[in-house]
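Dear support,

I submitted the protein below through the web form. The confirmation email said the job was done, but the results page showed an empty box. After a refresh the structure appeared. I'm attaching both so you can tell me whether what I see now is the final result or a partial one.
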Amino acid sequence: MQEEKLNYLKNLNLLLVEDDDELLNKMKTILSIFFKDVFCAKDGHDGYEIFLISNIDMVITDYVMPNINGYELCKTIRKKDKNIPLVIMSNYSDKEKLLNVIPLSLAQYLIKPVSYMTLTQTLVSMVEKLEESSYKLYSLTPTLTYDKINKELKEDNELVPLSKSEIIILELFIENKNKIIATFDIEYSLDPKDNKSTQAIKSLIYRLRKKVGKNIIINIPGFGYMYKTD
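What the results page shows now:
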């Protein structure tokens, strides 16, 4: 059962935030075994920037860091995403810190140093947190579902192939349902360093709309696009 849950992680991205270079590199090496990608930052400010522009599924962060600490980072992330699994690490068990993080609904609070066994058990807890929140399956229509863990779109249980870019954009719409998303934001989500043409974005949206339905992703002339659920 544990191995099955850990296998879920192969299609997920993790944000790891830690200001100790040695520990950051060590944990990245271990976590890269399980995750599709491990994004790293050395403080909460940079961590949140990565969270905003990348397709992050889980977060592990140190508590005490410069600029923005782990508690503030998780609190800010939780305002945008109520279900994403969050784990905070600390060098010592501090009653006040533990009380602070209770409202964040963490998957785990870890005391450093963290053993390999404790880390893998924590990853299992994070997967279970996803399952509890119905994160895995998202219903776009009564017959169309998106599996967030396996990155699969299915129509009546039949797989609908999605490109990597289509997955990024579909998840952007799901995370911002009933909100207008500007073409610039779509471009930035695909690759902050690559300026795609307006026509390229239109072509991508056109292909995605053919797969999920034109009435789900609608064009807002002069502004952008919206995933409309009501």
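Response: this is the final, complete result; the empty box was a page-load delay. Residues 116-132 form the longest helix (17 residues).
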